[in-house]
# Entry
Amino acid sequence: MADATAHAFAPLQKTFKTASGKSGKYWSLKDLAKQYPNVDKLPVSLRIVLESVLRNCDGQKVTPAHVEELANWAPNAERTDEIPFVVTRVVLQDFTGVPLLADLAAMRSVADKLGQSPKTIEPLVPVDLVVDHSVMVDHYGTPKALDLNMKLEFQRNNERYQFMKWGMQAFDTFRVVPPGFGIVHQVNLEYFARGVYKAPDDNAEVPTWYPDSLVGTDSHTTMVNGIGVVAWGVGGIEAEAAMLGQPVYMLTPDVVGFELTGKLREGVTATDLVLYVTAILRGEKVVGKFVEFFGPGAGSIAVPDRATIGNMAPEYGATMGFFPVDEMTIAYFKGTGRTDAEVERFEAYYKAQGLFGMPAPGELNYTKIVKLDLGTVTPSLAGPKRPQDRIDLGHLATKFSELYSKPIEANGFNQPADKLKQRYPLPHGAAPRADKEAPPTKNGAPREVVEMTANRSTKAAAHVAASAPKAPSGTVTIGNGDVLIAAITSCTNTSNPSVMLAAGLLAKKAVEAGLTVKPHVKTSLAPGSRIVTDYLEKAGLLPYLEKLGFYLAGYGCTTCIGNAGDLAPEINELITKNNLIGAAVLSGNRNFEARIHPNLKANFLASPPLVVAYAIAGNVMVDLMTQPVGKGRGGKNVYLGDIWPSMKEIDENLRHAMNAKAFRTNYEQIKDNPGKLWSSIKGVSGQVYDWPKSTYIAEPPFFEGFKMKPHATDAGFTNARIMALFGDSITTDHISPAGAIKESSPAGIWLKAHGVSKADFNSYGSRRGHHEVMMRGTFANVRIKNLMIPADAQGSREEGGVTRFQPGNEKMPIYDAAMKYIAQEVPTVIFAGEEYGTGSSRDWAAKGTYLLGIKAVVARSFERIHRANLVGMGVLPLQFRGADSWETLQLTGDERVDVVIGGELKPQMDVKIVVHRPDGTHQEATVRLRIDTPIEVDYYKHGGILPFVLRQLLAA
Ligand code: SF4
# Structure
């Protein structure tokens, strides 16, 4: 923080008092408003950013001009100014946290080699990593599922967890929440976020306090926007820069005000509301904008509902979905175990700043206002392929039937209509669920029955083979629309007691009515914190969920991140042999192709109670509004209305969920009782990592040949070959999948060559600490379609990461082609449609692109984080102008491409691309350089953000 006495705005430092008379200092926005009256009318979220700019104004990275520019924010001005935003802290999940830790370790190695202290590389703000992405649903439908899944998780991830333990001892401000505690955003909401903060080195008698704010290496970091925290997801490379003291740079955003009025009707859940909000805001095109909720409706909805809406900001495309702090936020802080001192300081600070309370209509300025009457929201699902495609519950059955035979371009499945209702018998198999004798876990705490042994790989392989999901026995048939996965998953909903209690209450009524879950459904319950099982148990509802197969499978992301585990081999075979369109119903936030399971093409997002209802109904073509969910006792039809819980019933049970003591007791265990499995992991010690041989962790190649002075970057290039032509909505999961590694893929072949058996492949996400796997996994999604490969006779396109190597047209995996082009020193480019890089923030999508030698991506539009990540890795993002596209340029993939940058590199400048066709003709097009800010120009010139930051730290 800047020295207050030398600070350009020193007189604005004031004192506030808490209810019990304690004093704190703060940088006063109200006093700043005396110089810039506009400040009082700024959206609350922008004023929190402004406080950071004001407080950190050191005349170097942050200048008085930055303060002035933001203080004068105008709702509809052209956005050219850059804001340097210094965040309070950083959160990580393990998939993104491990590669980030590997980068930090590599920087320490460079510092060491250059004769500098490794401690030069040290996070300057608190960093919390939650291990949540690794647990898989290998076991389900049994009381032993949690223990068995955790045991497998530790066997598979031992090397990664050892590396984290090295990080814990090497870096002073780096904390890890071990596996089995919860999901990063729920833990952030319930525990990390403490209201207001002071600098770690501020030991003054009256310290200076400031608001919580953060960046996280996960798109859904926005969940914490629900409690008034300014936060969003960034790529790991940006997060590294933030933790090493760089401001997060962004263009001054538009702020869309979302006015909520009315009240949710009986039977409508927060999940339904968020699917409405997502569909509305997708239509409003809020990409790169802040969304701020206000009005009486916003003030009336519960804080967990606000968090659910904040969580899905990436799905509606916004940078944030922000709710200001009010009395309900304070009540949530009290109910979730924050201390009295923290709560009163939080409230006093926000009141002193004039930031407290839900704004009324007309009170603040917004770029645009969108409105929703909560009373118009109806029960909904979203899918089958995109979260913004909301479907009224009553329309799902007809929608699925229609899409079944519609062409792929119309979002359909392109199947013959006469096969829709055909069913196929499963061969007789063993019992579907294993070992029902084992005693259930208490309070959801992991029992950790198995001790780790030295020979983990072999044991894990044997265990997976022995525990592979079994097919249901008897005369079970499988057909289109069958629900094959029903998962209560994802922090989006598991952090919300009202929908989790609703699922439990629905399960109770269903069991009492004699309903059961269809035998072909893989059921799982995976909450984002142990608090959930605690309150479900106290409310007496957990046994009913278990009775329907929803046994606790893990405290982690599971199905939401694509760790649903496999289906029974017999089911997989029936699907692939008969082109069956099987369904998943999950309470997650993403349903892109192949995200949930490679063989499930229809994936519907729904509230937890609807997940349970569809597991009972067994098929998405059952119209739950008119048809029975199933047959209960005595063959009686039971309808959804018979088992749907009332708001009153949910409210009566909410008291179990807001128990400050339970929250405190739970989170104290992170330190006091992290679990035997975690305690038994042996970490390497020392300030510099020694990179033991591993197929999980390796020294990343980003600093090879590092010099203090960057190479001069000639941004243009000529004679590039086209690596791929992609359509719209290519996600980061298409570019760098997180899920299963195919045996025949380049990554699978590399792992096998390094002695890893198929059963121990684990996922791409868990191997992000190893560039050899990740390079080979880039563009390896089994559903990605490179349109350079011609369509077959039926018009279908080949799926998988393949290309045609030029010249010669030989078809081969993109990785293999990339290595050949690199060997020949031929640059390559990618062409794509709209929303390139949409989906999770995934820095490997940019790192992999860079390591494959791709110099530029030319697209119709880019997702915010992925665009920044490309720049951060030194890859040019170029955007077509107007109606231009690779289709209008009539590209086929056989062409050569020049990228011509005339003059000095400037943000958003025009760049010329020249296409040379095989027939000797050529064509030019002007595209826009999507290096958006001056600091990004510097990053690019340094070969990326990591070398830039490293040079700064070593030079300091
Ligand atoms: S549950 Fe889903 S949204 Fe939440 S952190 Fe995990 S993957 Fe991200």
Observations:
- The first helix runs from residue 29 to 35.
- The two ends are 17 Å apart (CA to CA).
